[in-house]
Amino acid sequence: MGSKDNPEAVYDARSLGAPKMLLFGLQHMFAMFGATILVPILTGLPVSTTLLFAGLGTLLFHVVSKGKVPAFLGSSFAFIAGYAAVAPNGAPELLPYACLGVACAGVLYLVLSALFRAFGAARVMRFFPPVVTGPIVIAIGLSLSSSAINNCQTNWLVAVFAIAVIVVCNIWGRGMIKIIPILVGVISAYVLAAIMGLVDFTPVADAPWLGLPLVWDRTVFGLAASGLDVGIALTAIITITPLAFATIIEHIGDMSAISSTVNRNYIASPGLHRTLLGDGLATIVASLFGAPANTTYGENTGVLALTKVFDPRVVRIAAVFAVLFSFCPKFIALIEVMPACVVGGVSIVLYGMISAVGIRNLVENKVDFLKSRNVIVTALIIGLAVGITYSAAGSIPLNVGGVTIGLSGLAIGSIVGIVLNIVLPGHEDVVGVDGSRVEGDAIEGDGELLPLEGPRPASASSE
């Protein structure tokens, strides 16, 4: 079960019984649903295909990462600008080209994974001490929060009701209710919205119970069979592939966030090379079949922080649910008609939990903010990441070979923070996400619980 540092934590959900594990899995699925289906809605990609490969991609990630990391992979927002550039207004005939570009971006994950495997994670993590990763994690939550507020504004009463239910369940709830607050919040707020007449169930009634989640003509394979326009394909690849550098940085931030939340060093074991490989393979497979790129989901990290149930088996159950429900158009319709205010209320809590994990990362690793250099690094990461995200442009345009690429605020903030941490005098000691020291080519720790202070455990290299 838990540890002496966190007695409420559950690392083996089997001790809770199968029915509770199924409910935990369902909760994780609902947590990722709003954002995951929003990407295909914005880009024109099929929702059912997106859900199918979110589930399959998550299972693939868990296989590659040896089943150790409690991460769910959902639709990545980082590539939305790339889809829009290649397939304006979601043009169906151009979307497969955009998917081809995203698949090539996924290949970059594989390349970096090989480099991490060859040179060791420690040499990479020297550029990501807590003074860098903490603010990046904070910025991830803050950058997502505007979408939650926009959703809440459609009906603040329902949104606040969802928040209140989550808080009451988590603080005063007993037994099972205390550890599935997100699921209870979603269902309760959805019922309230229906009673208030905010839900049109006509699409649900019209949808069939069973249907195939794949549309062959919308896949890269279908595009290749019908005849590929090389010029459009190259343009898509050149436009979209560089976006992977931003998502790779986000991946490292997410792994730091999950490690801090769960109090296990996943950067050491199973290692960044494995998590990047799993993320990259999931993105490639999803893209080839016409779904959005996959990425580790902050919403589910928020669920981990809130429930203290850290068993990866629960996340795999959520992935199986996602696969099964992708074959049910009626269920897809039921989710699609869920009012935005319900999603918004739940998201405020989840996104806030992500930022809180970043703050915890800074506190537990005792980052010294009496040092001006640490204040400057943190200030610029958060200021640039959040400021650019909420600016009129939403990104910084970069012209490469006649192609304009939009760098997200999170990418800019992360890059600036990494560079400043290297060049400013007074570089802090390099530590792992759990506070363990880095020596030579290895990050200490084997992925088990590690003390933040006291005697150092035996060193173990990442695989």
TrEMBL record:
<dbReference type="Pfam" id="PF00860">
    <property type="entry name" value="Xan_ur_permease"/>
</dbReference>
<dbReference type="InterPro" id="IPR006042">
    <property type="entry name" value="Xan_ur_permease"/>
</dbReference>
<keyword id="KW-1133">Transmembrane helix</keyword>
<protein>
    <submittedName>
        <fullName>Uracil-xanthine permease</fullName>
    </submittedName>
</protein>
<comment type="similarity">
    <text>Belongs to the nucleobase:cation symporter-2 (NCS2) (TC 2.A.40) family.</text>
</comment>
<keyword id="KW-0812">Transmembrane</keyword>
<keyword id="KW-0472">Membrane</keyword>
<dbReference type="GO" id="GO:0042907">
    <property type="term" value="F:xanthine transmembrane transporter activity"/>
</dbReference>
<keyword id="KW-0813">Transport</keyword>
<dbReference type="InterPro" id="IPR006043">
    <property type="entry name" value="NCS2"/>
</dbReference>
<dbReference type="GO" id="GO:0005886">
    <property type="term" value="C:plasma membrane"/>
</dbReference>
